[in-house]
Design goal:
The complex is a heterodimer of chains A (119) and B (112).
Chain A (H helix, E strand, L loop, with lengths): L3 E2 L4 E5 L4 E3 L2 E2 L6 E8 L6 E7 L7 E2 L2 E6 L4 E6 L8 E9 L10 E3 L3 E6 L1
Parallel strand pairs in A: 2-12
Antiparallel strand pairs in A: 1-4, 3-9, 5-6, 5-10, 7-8, 8-9, 10-11, 10-12
Chain B lengths: L4 E3 L2 E4 L5 E6 L6 E8 L3 E9 L2 E5 L6 E5 L5 E5 L8 E8 L7 E2 L3 E5 L1
Parallel strand pairs in B: 2-11
Antiparallel strand pairs in B: 1-3, 3-8, 4-5, 4-9, 5-6, 7-8, 9-10, 9-11
The chains are: A mainly beta (119), B mainly beta (112).
Chain lengths: 119, 112
């Protein structure tokens, strides 16, 4: 079963409008981390935002916010005031079993959503 | 502070050959992870190194191996290349294993 599901293969948004990219996850761990990355056509994965499972407030980083609904196991990315440079692939990822003693952890990625911003 | 660097950026090999990819993490980062990205399988975890020890490994055959040096730089090696090994190989570094991973630009490997 997929652990990270991104149901929108592609999305269009008008420049300056807000857009929500969906992400649902599946884990039995109590402690986990959720990440969003942006991948432009150049290939580099750019970190956008992080949400810990115990964080009570939704994470925000500039124009990015994460709508975290723990009971529904969803971690949607909201981009406000879209810009042309936001056109890229967006990946939701999860790290399970987070132990802040520095233990191991690998990222599990969703299939991604291709966002296209229209002028 | 310089980001994660990967060399080479592009590589073309033929089936049966072997290849070594290099990754230099952000200064001070001790954990390095490797991922393979293909159109069909998406992003898949290969392995993670921390303080020169492999701490975690994904579901890849033994042809895929890696190591980490005392300065945290890491290399991954793929032996007996197959056509299916054509992919973008991404390296990521973090302070510790549980911290945010920052990715390099990737090495695009093409196997002919």
């Amino acid at each position: 079963a997929q652990k990270i599901t991104q149901t929108q293969p592609g999305m269009f948004v008008q420049e300056k409008e807000a857009v929500t990219l969906d992400c649902t996850y599946d884990t039995s761990d109590q402690s986990y981390g959720l990440f969003w990355y942006k991948q432009p056509s150049s290939g580099e994965m750019i970190f956008l935002i992080y949400q810990g499972s115990y964080d009570e407030q939704n994470a925000t980083e500039g124009r990015y916010s994460l709508n975290f609904q723990k009971a529904r196991k969803s971690a949607n990315l909201v981009i406000s005031a879209s810009q042309l440079g936001d056109s890229a692939m967006y990946f939701c990822a999860m790290r399970e079993g987070v132990d802040y003693g520095g233990s191991q952890g690998n990222l599990i990625f969703g299939k991604g959503t291709k966002l296209s911003v229209k002028p | 502070k310089a980001g994660v660097t990967q060399t080479p950026r592009y590589l073309i090999k033929t089936r049966g050959q072997q290849v070594t990819l290099s990754c230099s993490p952000i200064s001070g980062h001790r954990s390095v992870s490797w991922y393979q990205q293909t159109p069909g399988q998406g992003l898949q975890f290969l392995f993670e190194y921390f303080s020169e020890t492999q701490r975690n490994k994904g579901n890849f055959p033994g042809r895929f191996s890696g190591r980490q040096f005392s300065n945290s730089r890491s290399e991954m090696n793929v032996s007996t290349l197959e056509l299916g090994d054509s992919a973008l190989y991404l390296c990521a570094s973090s302070l510790e294993g549980a911290d945010t991973q920052y990715f390099g630009p990737g090495t695009r490997l093409t196997v002919l």
